[in-house]
């Protein structure tokens, strides 16, 4: 069973670049075909799907985040990375990574990592 664990800086300043990592344990991220998604939840709001990368390296982005987001993976470290540029206080959220057989349904989630944007 894959286990997912997000990690990140916790606090970033406005206009900086946010880097988050999702480390997958239990199996290689490229062994079987999955979509690895980044999803966030701002306080008091619902889940927002940001984008995903498939096992074969294809990337998919929500129009809301496409201009600011890049998702990649590192097979040597078995992790998926989210890069979000030009962060603002509106990017304050709990960020999750999730595994799914498609872009809308997920069978494994990480616990989430909190990101605060403040100067």
Architecture overview:
- This protein is mainly beta and 119 residues long.
- The chain is globular and about 40 Å long.
- The strands form two sheets. Strands 2, 4, 5, 6, 9, 10 and 11 form a seven-stranded mixed sheet that branches. The chain has a four-stranded antiparallel sheet with strand order 1-3-8-7, with no helix packed on it.
- The chain contains no helices and eleven strands.
- Strand 9 and strand 10 (108-109) form a beta hairpin.
- It is 0% helix and 50% strand.
**Helix/strand order:** EEEEEEEEEEE
Mean pLDDT value: 96
How much of the residues is beta strand, in percent? over 45%
Shape: globular
Rg from alpha-carbon coordinates: 13 Å
Classify the helix fraction into a percent range.
under 10%
Secondary-structure-based class equals mainly beta
Number of helices: 0
| Total DSSP E strands | 11
| Low-pLDDT stretches | none
Rounded to the nearest angstrom, the distance between the terminal CA atoms is: 40 Å
What summary fits the major beta sheet?
7 strands, mixed
Topology:
Elements: E1 3-7, E2 11-12, E3 18-25, E4 35-41, E5 48-54, E6 59-61, E7 69-74, E8 79-84, E9 93-100, E10 108-109, E11 113-117
Parallel strand pairs: 2-11
Antiparallel strand pairs: 1-3, 3-8, 4-5, 4-9, 5-6, 7-8, 9-10, 9-11
Short description:
The protein is mainly β. It contains no helices and eleven strands.
